[in-house]
Amino acid sequence: MQLGLVGLGRMGGNMRERLRSAGHEVVGFDHNAQISDVTSLAGLAEKLESPRAVWVMVPAGVTDATIDELAEVLGEGDIIIDGGNSRFSDDAPRAERLNELGIGYIDVGVSGGVWGRQNGYGLMVGGAQEHVDRLMPIFNALKPEGEFGFVHAGPVGAGHYSKMVHNGIEYGLMHAYAEGYELMAASELVTNVPGVIKSWREGTVVRSWLLDLLDRALDEDPELAELSGYTEDTGEGRWTVDEAVRLAVPLNVITASLFARFASRQDDSPAMKAVSALRQQFGGHAVHKR
Ligand SMILES: O=C(O)[C@H](O)[C@@H](O)[C@H](O)[C@H](O)COP(=O)(O)O
């Protein structure tokens, strides 16, 4: 089937290749002319036969502007799919705006990162059944080959909601492996920490793809000496915690792993300075000075 694809970065570019390998006709647009198939969104719309389907794969901050621009060159019966990491609460207002123009909307949480091109992408879809049905050939080409890896999670918003929770879990899992790694590295007994991590890849209860990737990272740099611990986040963990607060759901692990990222960015902790100052004030305890 034909698909327009807007945004040909690390994710979109690889998705274009996977879809083409499966025999689909993809017309891609990107602001980088060197990788773009057309020079404008209008050019993209012209190349597609109606009713058109256009998948948007751009960074979360520019999604609404991109969709609004796209809506100007699309029309009645067309569908826009947002596969970026948008906040789920943006989906319903978007769908309403597009609905007034007769344009359908589907939100898709896409997981798999740079490995998706070869392994397939995990897809979490939100939207009306008729729109999802129309896009099934595309979803089937993008998803992994096995039985799993695709879900129609619910109405508009449910795809991004599921992906948000997926990413919250991703934070917690990564952090648990990271803490285990640190404890073994600090111990007097374990002399082969990368070896233990590697051994866990088969047979153990904690084997997983994230563990495989930790092993890969340790193969490249056994003490992670090249890296700083400063860890970014792009929003999904914060949204997960926002939802936990709204619904009063105790997300202990995920919240702690999000806060650990914030702590990773501090040279020195103002809170711990205050604790140190208070110990000195009430107990006369010695403090470490800069
Ligand atoms: O499932 C995935 O493929 C990843 O989750 C992917 O979506 C991305 O790598 C994260 O969004 C990073 O999120 P943070 O920057 O918040 O760690």
UniProtKB/TrEMBL annotation:
Gene Ontology annotations of biological process type: D-gluconate metabolic process; pentose-phosphate shunt
Annotated SMART domains: 6PGD
Superkingdom field: Bacteria
InterPro entries (alphabetical): 6-PGluconate_DH-like_C_sf, 6DGDH_YqeC, 6PGD_dom2, 6PGDH_C, 6PGDH_NADP-bd, NAD(P)-bd_dom_sf, Pgluconate_DH
Database matches in Pfam families: 6PGD (PF00393), NAD_binding_2 (PF03446)
Residue stretches making up the 6-phosphogluconate dehydrogenase C-terminal domain: 159-290
SUPFAM superfamilies according to UniProt: 6-phosphogluconate dehydrogenase C-terminal domain-like, NAD(P)-binding Rossmann-fold domains
Keywords (A to Z) from UniProt: Gluconate utilization, Oxidoreductase
Signal peptide: none
Any one GO molecular-function label of the UniProt entry: phosphogluconate dehydrogenase (decarboxylating) activity
Family in the record: Belongs to the 6-phosphogluconate dehydrogenase family.
PANTHER family: 6-PHOSPHOGLUCONATE DEHYDROGENASE (PTHR11811)
Protein name: 6-phosphogluconate dehydrogenase
Protein's organism: Micromonospora violae
